[in-house]
Structure of ABC transporter permease:
Amino acid sequence: MHDFASEIRNALLLILQGDAELWAIVLLSLRVSLMAVLISAVIGMPLGAALAVSRFPGRRGVIVLVNALMGLPPVVVGLLVYLMLSRSGPLGVLQLLYTPTAMIIAQVVLVTPIVAALTRQVIEMLAEEYSEQLRSLGVSRLASVPTLLWDARLALVTALLAGFGRAIAEVGAVIIVGGNINHVTRVMTTTIALETSRGNLALALALGAILIGIAVAVNALVSAVSLRAEHEGLTHA
């Protein structure tokens, strides 16, 4: 019990004293995950919105596929990205394996289906609500996408936060393509796994506490954005 209390105290000291190694790991984690979410938003939001308003043969199958991709096993994604970026892979010439860029690519693959699927759900409901108004203005389905995305911006923030939560907590894919190299690709989740196995519980606990804090903050933001979106919806009604 004394050792456990001592480890917790040491973990708190690492956080409060601004340990350089600790915060370098945290900042790299945030940089990788935020960049992955940004790229996923650029890809996933237009894709989800287009899927929501378009009508074509096989559309239902595409929707099922996108929804299924939300549950992609991270280690499988890591393996596929590894094969693409390895020396014998089609993108091996770029020499991206075991770099933060490789980790971003893996997270983009994981997060984009989440953003696309949630965007489709939001835009589909909004398109039904505005269908008569848009039709009276002579706006085509695809031309309405930018307007619908802007009108649903608050709800879509929730989709981005959900994607960020998936990215920041990821360990399987990033450790495969990043290699968990000290001061290069070591992020919070991979460091927690490594330091726990080494018995360095203070650093693992400190990073775990920060990771939990980020998760709580993300969920608080989701709740706040959802409440604001509901309030604006009632106001417009």
The chain has one domain: 2-236. The two ends are 58 Å apart (CA to CA). Residues 2-236 form a domain with the MetI-like fold fold (CATH 1.10.3720.10). The chain has a mean pLDDT of 88.
